[in-house]
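Hi R.,

As promised on Friday, here is the backbone we talked about, encoded as structure tokens. Could you run it through your design pipeline when you get a chance and send me back a sequence?
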């Protein structure tokens, strides 16, 4: 066993150095010596298509090995990860400290259920609440479970503390939001693919435009006595890294306090250093009543989610009213502690802010070169997006652009046909960021003209985006 631990430590040895005032961190070593996959990428993609539900449309690349910000497929081809599993691997793939915590805990105890105590969850609870400044945590596993927990907690608080009449509690959320794939989460969605033929949707929902404080106040004035919570993403991720106007978060805080409504921040993607702050709400120094965390909380190793709140809110839920067999399990708790320590000890908040500025400078230069193709570059920290002009690209889509990026060794994923998210691990080096930007420039300069010549103009994969709920075109052609 000692030999296995030594080999693991050797495999993930890494170095930290500083260059030109920028922290450059990488994992030393390479995948040589690791056992190669016995199956080809083509075979594995075909097998998944035949044996798995078709609920995803992946970029056709197979992950076989990963370290830091680098990925290798079964054939040994190397790629740079510019998605980070939707921010689940902020710390980098297979971080040695997180892997060490996983291995050591897995050898001792993996699950107790909450029917008993274990020696890791209390430490995780203390670490998390102290780091974020809340009294208590309710642990779950996936981000969607965290959202469900926050919704139940808000309703419970609304009936117990605010005295909302039975069956009248309302949750307000934002157009363009993404909070998961459960029925409660999609009931708040404006994505027709997420809602159609999953009816009936959960009642007790009201929608407002993200960033529109006037509309939010109007809803609060009209229905405030029945509203338990306002659930929102401080930066909308799936919508295309949509950033609210300056002052919006502070205004939301003021309105929620005035109307006695829980301010519930879904920081599953935007939190844990992704935006250049520990929480995206920290950009305006506001403190939500409830915070939902997930993804990077597990360091890309194991699902971990959590809901944070103070006692006057959290203790509305009593034994038997909510829970999870695996929530707070010792393996996840040990991994989450290590994941948070990596963020703190390696200065990933500051690094995200610094690297994000560098990446946007590179992207803005590309925008200046191709103003007829690019509508906007936006982001905070390493939470960024390039929005393309779909009319100028038609019939080419952002997915087609991502396929060409993949051919150039860069892995990114589109959203809503015309937006490419660029959210690399926070350990990515300046040189790797430059490599990603250069690949995008090369695709627009060399690949796109050929794609436009070869793809008939009459063919288009761009689908209508008029919302069934509100009748508006959220992601309209531009």
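Update: got your reply. Pasting your designed sequence below so it's all in one thread:
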């Amino acid at each position: 066993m000692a030999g296995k631990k030594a080999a693991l430590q050797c495999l993930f040895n890494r170095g930290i150095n500083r260059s030109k005032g920028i922290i450059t961190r990488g994992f030393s070593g390479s995948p040589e010596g690791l056992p190669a996959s016995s199956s080809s990428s083509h075979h594995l993609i075909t097998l998944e298509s035949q044996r798995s539900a078709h609920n995803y449309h992946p970029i056709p690349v197979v992950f076989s090995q990963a370290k830091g910000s680098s990925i290798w497929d079964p054939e040994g081809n190397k790629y740079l990860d510019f998605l980070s599993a939707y921010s689940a691997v902020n710390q980098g793939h297979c971080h040695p400290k997180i892997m060490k915590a996983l291995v050591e805990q897995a050898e001792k105890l993996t699950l107790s259920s909450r029917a008993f105590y274990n020696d890791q969850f209390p430490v995780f609870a203390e670490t998390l609440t102290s780091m974020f400044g809340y009294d208590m945590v309710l642990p779950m596993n996936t981000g969607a479970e965290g959202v469900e927990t926050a919704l139940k907690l808000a309703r419970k608080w609304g009936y117990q503390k605010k005295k909302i009449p039975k069956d009248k509690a309302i949750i307000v959320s934002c157009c363009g939001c993404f909070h998961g794939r459960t029925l409660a989460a999609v009931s708040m969605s404006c994505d027709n693919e997420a809602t159609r033929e999953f009816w009936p949707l959960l009642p007790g929902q009201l929608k407002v435009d993200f960033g529109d404080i006037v509309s939010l106040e109007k809803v609060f004035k009209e229905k405030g006595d029945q509203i338990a919570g306002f659930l929102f993403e401080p930066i909308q991720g799936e919508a295309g890294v949509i950033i609210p106007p300056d002052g919006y978060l502070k205004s939301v805080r003021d309105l929620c306090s005035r109307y006695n409504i829980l301010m519930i921040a879904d920081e599953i993607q935007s939190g844990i250093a992704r935006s250049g702050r520990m929480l995206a709400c920290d950009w305006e120094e506001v403190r939500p009543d409830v915070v939902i965390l997930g993804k990077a909380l597990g360091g890309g190793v194991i699902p971990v989610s959590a809901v944070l709140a103070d006692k006057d809110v959290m203790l509305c839920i009593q034994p038997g009213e909510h829970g999870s067999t695996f929530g707070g399990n010792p393996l996840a708790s040990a991994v989450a502690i290590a994941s948070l320590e990596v963020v703190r000890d390696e200065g990933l908040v500051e690094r995200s802010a610094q690297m994000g500025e560098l990446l946007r400078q590179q992207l803005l230069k590309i925008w200046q070169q191709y103003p007829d193709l690019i509508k906007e570059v936006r982001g905070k920290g390493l939470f960024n997006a390039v929005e393309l002009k779909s009319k100028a690209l038609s019939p080419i889509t952002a997915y087609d652009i991502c396929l060409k990026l993949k051919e150039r060794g860069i892995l990114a994923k589109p959203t809503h046909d015309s937006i490419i998210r660029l959210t690399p691990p926070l350990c990515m080096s300046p040189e790797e960021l430059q490599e990603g930007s250069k690949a995008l420039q090369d695709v627009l300069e060399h690949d796109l003209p050929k794609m436009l010549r070869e793809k008939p103009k009459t063919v288009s994969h761009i689908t209508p985006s008029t919302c069934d709920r509100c009748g508006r075109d959220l992601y309209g052609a531009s």
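One thing I noticed while checking it: The radius of gyration is 23 Å.

Thanks again,
M.
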